[in-house]
Task: structure prediction
Amino acid sequence: MVEQLPTIAQWGIGIGALPTGPMNSITDVQGVTVGHVTLAVDHVQTGVTAIKPHSGNLFRDKVPAAVHVINGFGKSVGLVQVAELGVLETPILLTNTFSVAAATEGLLDYTLAQSPEIGISTGTINPVVCECNDSYLNDIRGRHVTRTHAVEALHDCSQEVIQGSVGAGRGMSCFGWKGGIGSSSRYVQIESNAYTLGALVLSNFGDPAWLCLDGQPLSALAPQGNAASSEDKGSVIVVLATDMPCSSRQLGRLAKRAVVGLARTGSYIGHGSGDIVVAFSTAQTIPHTPRGVAEPYLSVHEEHLAHGFPAVAWAVEEAVWNSLACARSVVGRAGHVRHGISGMRDEILRRRARGHSTL
Amino acid sequence: MVEQLPTIAQWGIGIGALPTGPMNSITDVQGVTVGHVTLAVDHVQTGVTAIKPHSGNLFRDKVPAAVHVINGFGKSVGLVQVAELGVLETPILLTNTFSVAAATEGLLDYTLAQSPEIGISTGTINPVVCECNDSYLNDIRGRHVTRTHAVEALHDCSQEVIQGSVGAGRGMSCFGWKGGIGSSSRYVQIESNAYTLGALVLSNFGDPAWLCLDGQPLSALAPQGNAASSEDKGSVIVVLATDMPCSSRQLGRLAKRAVVGLARTGSYIGHGSGDIVVAFSTAQTIPHTPRGVAEPYLSVHEEHLAHGFPAVAWAVEEAVWNSLACARSVVGRAGHVRHGISGMRDEILRRRARGHSTL
Amino acid sequence: MVEQLPTIAQWGIGIGALPTGPMNSITDVQGVTVGHVTLAVDHVQTGVTAIKPHSGNLFRDKVPAAVHVINGFGKSVGLVQVAELGVLETPILLTNTFSVAAATEGLLDYTLAQSPEIGISTGTINPVVCECNDSYLNDIRGRHVTRTHAVEALHDCSQEVIQGSVGAGRGMSCFGWKGGIGSSSRYVQIESNAYTLGALVLSNFGDPAWLCLDGQPLSALAPQGNAASSEDKGSVIVVLATDMPCSSRQLGRLAKRAVVGLARTGSYIGHGSGDIVVAFSTAQTIPHTPRGVAEPYLSVHEEHLAHGFPAVAWAVEEAVWNSLACARSVVGRAGHVRHGISGMRDEILRRRARGHSTL
Amino acid sequence: MVEQLPTIAQWGIGIGALPTGPMNSITDVQGVTVGHVTLAVDHVQTGVTAIKPHSGNLFRDKVPAAVHVINGFGKSVGLVQVAELGVLETPILLTNTFSVAAATEGLLDYTLAQSPEIGISTGTINPVVCECNDSYLNDIRGRHVTRTHAVEALHDCSQEVIQGSVGAGRGMSCFGWKGGIGSSSRYVQIESNAYTLGALVLSNFGDPAWLCLDGQPLSALAPQGNAASSEDKGSVIVVLATDMPCSSRQLGRLAKRAVVGLARTGSYIGHGSGDIVVAFSTAQTIPHTPRGVAEPYLSVHEEHLAHGFPAVAWAVEEAVWNSLACARSVVGRAGHVRHGISGMRDEILRRRARGHSTL
Result:
């Protein structure tokens, strides 16, 4: 395996405030794991990324969850039921737009094998699969992701989050640069309790003219001469995890703050973009089968929840930047190229240093 | 005080299934109280109705709540914040469309007096006031309801729910007949626990051609020769209370079933109608000021919650019918008249008896 | 092909008011066609149903559309983008819950073949596939529907709508009886213009204890001794078509009235139910590629739109009943049986006749 | 009248791109006017601001409109009906939280006087009043705004938009500084057509630690030693106007981009904040009374609409900054003070100049 390029924290850059977790990724939230399958041959530059809230049987022990649609130009599946019932009952898969069906098949293979009761003695299951359009680099019409790839991504899950041009991020573009998978985390202190909040993004959005790093405009560095659109097209999927005890309504409120992180990178929420947020809490599980009449669930007070809001903004901003910083250049379909922004690191740091001398 | 006309249960009619509470009203839910102020002189036929979830300080001890907008052609206030935060922090007032502002002032008078900290050492408060348009019988442009009336309705609250042409219901019309305030309740058994679910409606909707009683069409009895619209105009406010422990998301799911009860009375959710549902649970309170980091809240399992769904449908249907059955005729603005349907009771029961002989 | 069983209009029963179109089906709306593929061997009792708004290239010439989620316990795909953009750009497919992915693949095959520009020189496409759970009669875990079946259903589309135990309706159950595909239509007169509004349902819901026909309770006829749940489980998909010129917002308002038709059949919107409505207008198309800066779109006035509201309620109610009346009995998985209600026709008509003598 | 302090354009700062209109305010949209009443004596530091989409009778000739709730911790009225019907039928009033009722009364006085048919021969009217909490500087419990003030603000409307500590903005705070009313506009070129998009904000939000100007962090300048919260509390109301022909759905999409402008000033959408957007188009009116069966409405193509998205972000960001730049210091309730940020202008420009030398 090729070594991962440095994150922006490794560049020496911190976003906002609050300490990050030890891995500065979504897997700092206890129990969360992430896996990838990457397809990278010629015009096939795509893949699947899996996020598991816990390692058990998620259908039987669901987690509280919420979705937030920032812009609905997207083809994600499973959002309607999460909104109604406030729970996630499968891992989340990310892939390209036309591979949602294959990923769904794989997710069904995986979950039906785990739970033979589904569709026999109990109801069905709600697979959650989100997507971005990687057709600039990938032969998306070829639908090269198979259900087997999806199952492999689920089995690949571990605490280590490989970032950059991997998994579902393999063919994605961001602000004219190579985008993909990025992650980050923050500690949120509420009185004597320290909670963790992690973000993972699949970045595929952004108008090259408006990229910012922590407020510093970087449009002068925008890639030239390629087919980079001058519009904010594409999409972004944001997955938020936390061990803060939250109701689904409260997770929805956290999810709504993701847009702040996106805006701080330079997004103005382009028209042709499926900007979708899925948030879950690992603090407690909700059983498929009732254990009694009513059960106690912990919720942080709404005023405490508010401490998580800037944490979401900063973790998402940093995750998008990590998806850029860690992404190696990719040559794909029709010879199209997206360059990794890491080659610009020194120039970016130079500009930033001069900017900071002004503070 | 004039005696209340009989409810349909007193006519001998039960709707759907499940036992009703002892008073067959929303106040069967422990702690809930209802009060009215009625203005009934010449062209002034209007009023205020107050519903209190509990008798304490609701700002300091809020109740979980949800709103559901069936049709948004309405001017209710306070719904946005209930949707965001999932709590009710004032009693609910009902009145006519153009008296919402006066009722809001009265509700502020009442709540600011209770809580001197509001707007000084803590934030503001979210008054919830819902309305229907009683302009057929009432001089609505005169805005005869004052803030004092609103406070009086709040002080009038008791366990007894007067139904019919009273309070906010004084000037309302329903299916061409006199509408107004109606209520009903159901017991919901979940394993060994018996919960209560109560509904109170302010009825002001319905096309006379489509009125039904428990499936029996009553269009043949439709009032003739008055200005009764042939369209389903007007509005209806439904307040649901329960002692079932529910999250605000779950209360929202209960609230969505109110439309079934309305449809069963003959509504097709007319265009010009503000059909609004507010639901709350009295099972537990949520403190304004955090008591710790996180607190346990009970929630019934989603499969148990489902037992409440038909209860909502039936309680709402019966509450609408009680608003009709208990309403005395009113002569109001410009000599307009709405007759109470109670005069038709024998004819309705005769039709129903014949219909039932067929079962 | 086995002949279709009579609809309730052929039983002599009309629902509500307003004239029906010549075929009393969704295809009375000019240009709309419907096709089926039915799988009916042993434990495989399922299929696909396709609805096309027009016979051209729907990606290039989209139709205004809206979705409404009555209850979100469902796995339909494509709803998020319809809500955002207000257009439908593929035919609608209906199938069983676990065949949504296969149907999506088939819909992609079909649409990508029609439009080679998709994913190359323009963006992607938003397939709309809705579902119910037919696992009582069908081996749903076997995922027997293939992408080829989906394409075949699209090619099967014609003006004739076969109703009952066909297509996606093959394995569905409704109020303990055999459910499936049903349709109906209404003329809506607005001043001098006659518009058509059609409904097609995939019925798979309903508590046997509460089935009604036009207000007449039929619980006494409820099927006995089988595994019929005593709860309102399952799902229902409602597709509404009209040639009334409507914005997507207005189509959303029409869609919200479908629940009235469902409630009139006896639904109380059960918990475990994906109750989803998709509505579109054929009055005009919206080009994928801009033809100029701004284009004129006709919209009926909101007060005229209201004439469509009862039409929706009645067409949906009649469509559900046609799905029952036209459904032949099916024996499926594990020897499970659902009987067609048509065997009860005489008894139902007898009860109805006696009930009507009371009017 | 005291002269208005310079806007940030007068400081020499432009935000984003696109040319501004001649007045760089919401009234660059033809027909839009703005008026204020300001109360500024001792502990009474509050007021009313009115925005009129056109100078005619808005009830009879409505404008397409949409609302978007960024965060629903707010008490604005009228939003439910705008969401349902997609039209605005009164001017918009802004005031403090506890004066919403008084402003509603004034708006009713004004509109009922204009249209004697309301509540007599036709339905009622939906007043739109939005609010922020100015209790730090203003005696909000005193409810000093009267219905007469509201009417006066409506009569004060003109093309000139006074910005800063005026009208509803008199007592507002923003990032620990004096906030209030700000405005800005952008030209949006679509092929050969130039459209105007204008924003007006009532700013009352922001954590002092995170204020930014065009990416430049200004936390080092944060006001010290006063009761400035370290949280992002408060609220913001954004009104968007455009002459682009848009459906209400499209206006909703424009409204959703306002959050980008807020995020760019440093907001992370605090918990205790009513962040509300109301957007309308002046391109065409929608008659209260139908003129025929259906009417043609122009809509820009969705891809053209997208040109308005960055325009919204930049106009909102600049409007917030103008609300800061133009605001004079105010001493109010309990001796509380908010300083105008204009005193920091030279320091801000110095930092900005050094930052820019790095580009």
Summary: The first helix of chain D runs from residue 8 to 11. Chain D has nine helices and 18 strands. The CA atoms of residues 98 and 143 of chain D lie 6 Å apart.
